[in-house]
Amino acid sequence: MSKITIWGDLMSQPTRMVVWVCKYNNISYDFNVVKIGLKEQRTPEYLKINPFGMVPAIQDNSNNFHLYESHTICRFLLNKYGDQHNLYSSNDIFQRAKIDEYLDWHHTGLRYTFHHYFHEAYLHPKFNEPIDFPLFDKTSNDIPKVLNQFQSLFLKNGQNQFVAGTNSVTLADFSAFCEISQLKLLKFDYTKYQHIHEWMQRMEKLTGYEDVFKFVIKLSKEEPNYLETIKRP
Amino acid sequence: MSKITIWGDLMSQPTRMVVWVCKYNNISYDFNVVKIGLKEQRTPEYLKINPFGMVPAIQDNSNNFHLYESHTICRFLLNKYGDQHNLYSSNDIFQRAKIDEYLDWHHTGLRYTFHHYFHEAYLHPKFNEPIDFPLFDKTSNDIPKVLNQFQSLFLKNGQNQFVAGTNSVTLADFSAFCEISQLKLLKFDYTKYQHIHEWMQRMEKLTGYEDVFKFVIKLSKEEPNYLETIKRP
Question: Where is the GST N-terminal domain (chains A, B) (predicted)?
Answer without folding.
Answer: 2-85
